[in-house]
Amino acid sequence: MKKRTHISRVRFLLVLIFMPVLLFAQETITGKVVIEGTGEPAPFVNVIEEGTRNGTSSDMDGNFSITVSSLPVNLKVTALGFAGKTVTVEKAGDITITVSESMEALEEVVVTGLASSIKRENLANAVATVSSEELVGTTGQPTVDGALYGKVPGVNIVSSSGAPGGGFALRLRGVSSINGNNQPLFIVDGVYYNNDEIPTGLRAASGANRGNEENSSNRLADLDPNDIENIEILKGASAAAIYGQRANAGVVIITTKRGKGGKTKINFSQDTGIAFIMNPLGLRPWTAESVEAAFGAAERARYEAAVNGGGLIDYEDAIYGETALITETRLSTSGGNDKTKFYVGGSYRDEEGIIKNTGFDRLSIRANIDHKISDVFDFSINSNFVRSNNSRSFTGNENEGGLSYGYTLAFTRPWYNLFPDENGNYPNNPNYPGNPIFVRDQARNEDSTNRFLQGFKLNTKLFTDDRNSVRFLVSGGLDYVANETFVYVPETHQAQVGGQEGFIAVGKNNITQFNTQAIGVWDHTALSGDLNFTTQAGITYIDIERNFVNSQGADLLPGQTNVDQSVNQTINQFLAKEKDFGYFGQVEGNYKDQVIATVGYRLDKSTRNGDPNEFYGFPKASLALNLNNFDFWNIEAINQFKLRAAYGETGSPATFGATFTSLGATNIGGNGGASVAGLRGDPDIKPETSKEFETGFDISFLQNRVSFEATYYNRSVDDLILTRQLPASSGFTTETTNLADLTNQGVELALRADVIRTDNVFWNTGVQFYKNVSEITRLDVPAFAQPGAGFGTGLGTFFIEEGQPVTQLVGNIDGVLTQVGNVEPDFQMAFNNQLTLFKQLDISFLLQWKEGGENLNLSKFLTDLGRTTPDLETPEGQARRTSPANAARFVEPAGYVRLREAAIYYNFENKVVKSLFGDNVQGVRLGFSGRNIFTITDYSSYDPEVSVNGGAGLSSGIEVTPFPSSSQFYFHLNVNF
């Protein structure tokens, strides 16, 4: 005890002796960080002594003070949104450091794990990043998925409906499932975001034979694209493996806008626009002779009477010819101090449809708050409330229910007047069991959604020294969707009289989705200082509950719109509960920014697997070599030359209920009971598993003014889950189980260049190229037409066959099953440009080119039957109509060139703004823009982007009377305070 006390006294004495020497050896640097061009202070900028962990940050007024061991010294200056720089300080005292704002700086960091990120220059995967400016900076964007068109190589987007509120099928690197989900996992500020298409019961009113033909929008439409700061797209398994069983179709990570320290800023934006049908088909150019040839002499007389009495009626224009008004108002404020930063924003979008009584409106309110409790604890909360309403009317497939406009227009002859008389009575359509004017005015197909998202993140810094930093992160969120649907067909509708005598369906649909994760992260610098490790490990949990209740009634009392006022009532309920649990770990090593390697592993179990307690493993590994950082590199013109390679696996469990044999209700002799349904469950079913190898290189030169990225990937999806037919002797009809494998191989290229970069002229251009080829490599059953993905081999369908593309279309041609088309494009390209003149005039456009790929145009099949196809007066049209009505007759090339977006904006000079509005207004911007401005295509219908099957499964390339796409033009006003 005495010896220990003596040693302590000696240490204390030595500290007292040498303390003045230590203090004398240190130097203090004070200064201010300001923004280039404005001279405004730059708060919360990091100022770090190079090669050490010694650092500080500037305060609200941009002031800082740092004590260093000796001079001269290099100070590294970094901050989000500003270009980093290194400043050499020769002597102590006051200095001024100028930083420049940079959009590129926002994109330098990319997510690589559930709680870590990496500089893009060190990334070993082709992860695409889309900034807020790229997403919504050009024109008005109704939905997030629609805003991504042409902006990311490796992403194929197909519209499943031109209705307001969208409806899109988004595919990353090809088809990843046939029966299951092909949409990527969406994560918004750490919250797993539900993107379901919720059924409405429409098929029971119209006769549509499948729920995926109800023209529903996907719920990503609830997210306001203007709230987004940036999007990171993990396109393949090699990048998304750390997300496990939910990531088989890729992952889209969305980060919304957050507050920045400093003066509170307010932004107001107003968009006003119009929309109209993009490509009207027009009337068949009828003549008296062609009418008589088609329908006989009596019909010719009616035609001539109509022509003499006022002319023919263009029902396409009557239904699809509205000029729709679009308005969107946005107001946001952001700011904060060194402890708390906030972003609060609200928007309201009201979009009419090109069909009367259709439209979409969305009210969104968001609050994002970041707070630093202490040097140890900080947290973030994200809250978003959305109220959206949608009226989509009746389009798409409906099997002679007399409701779908495309069906009725195909058979309606323009010399019959179907408008109501002076008493409001609508005449029956003599050509088809439905009057489209009556449906437009009287029938309803609507839904409304209240949605609340709450995310949270708590970060705890457990330990920090010169070489180690350990932190613990807890995060998660809640996504609650309360959706109501309403379908109503009056009892006076032509097809309802003598049939259902009116129809009503009311849906109450709730989705509760909760996710959480707990993660430990250890950053370690090896003794040499040249090698850094980031290690993370944690657990994740996801809980999803769906409760869809649809109450339907037929035989309505006159004028009633309640289910309880109907005679025949049925209630359908769908209940689903899913739970996933997983462990994961990842280690990332970085040697001098020269060699960057990552290995990781994810273990997941899910209640959707055959054994809900069995864990499945998903590994990942990647390697990046920055050759330009090696000592031997001496090519000064090339700023970066990186070689990269990665491997990863992801999974996708079976759809809910596939593991169990369900029971069907029976009623025999008045006694209720249950019987075994025709579908046999498979308790041994395994998740589909993607295994992907990716390799490529990135190069940039001429001071990063030109960059090029090239990627090749090979992705196999093993144990595909399919439904097969069973012999009657088994007691069942079908079974869903693992039966096949497929591969996707592709190339992604992206070129970006600042062609001109001067004080008065800035021109940036980019070209993207994407090609994917798929093949079924194993099939344990005979080739078959995929159920629910077409209309049989008579009219054409997707056909699952070993050795063939998963996207092939097959038809029965003269008794032989023949591939008649392939909906997968040969390649896709995008060409985008941004031009700024004198720092005031911004001009931009996006041109998209899709080469190859075919569609099955069954809308033309219907118009040929009704003899209303516009080209039937031509020899080609007549020859087609007399040819056999098989799939080959209706397959058409679906390539196109489209001016997707274009805009011109004027930014008023600061001195003009201040002279007109005073010092409170910081900027004013006016602009004019357009979407879907023109399309060059050989496809004969409204839009070569079609999907009658919604956004799930094999959902592109088959058209049946869609809601036509529209062109949109906007006027924009933006004011910053």
Fold topology:
Layout: H1 2-25, E1 27-35, E2 46-49, E3 55-57, E4 63-68, E5 73-79, E6 82-89, E7 93-99, H2 103-106, E8 109-111, E9 117-119, E10 128-131, H3 132-136, H4 144-147, E11 155-159, E12 168-172, E13 185-188, E14 191-193, H5 202-206, E15 228-234, H6 237-240, E16 251-256, E17 262-277, H7 288-295, H8 297-308, H9 315-320, E18 324-336, E19 340-352, E20 359-372, E21 377-391, H10 405-411, H11 436-442, E22 444-464, E23 468-489, E24 503-525, E25 531-556, E26 566-591, E27 595-606, E28 616-626, E29 638-652, E30 663-668, E31 671-676, E32 679-680, E33 688-701, E34 706-725, E35 734-757, E36 761-779, E37 784-790, H12 792-795, E38 797-800, E39 808-813, E40 816-822, E41 827-837, E42 841-851, E43 854-857, H13 858-866, H14 875-882, H15 887-890, E44 891-893, E45 896-907, H16 910-917, E46 923-937, E47 958-959, E48 966-976
Parallel strand pairs: 1-7, 13-16, 32-35, 43-47
Antiparallel strand pairs: 1-4, 2-3, 2-5, 5-6, 8-9, 10-15, 11-12, 13-14, 15-16, 17-18, 17-48, 18-19, 19-20, 20-21, 21-22, 22-23, 23-24, 24-25, 25-26, 26-27, 27-28, 28-29, 29-33, 30-31, 33-34, 34-35, 35-36, 36-41, 37-38, 38-39, 39-40, 41-42, 42-45, 43-44, 45-46, 46-48
Helix pairs in contact: 7-8, 10-13
GO cellular component, one term: cell outer membrane
Keywords: Cell outer membrane, Membrane, Receptor, Signal, TonB box, Transmembrane, Transmembrane beta strand, Transport
Protein name: TonB-linked SusC/RagA family outer membrane protein
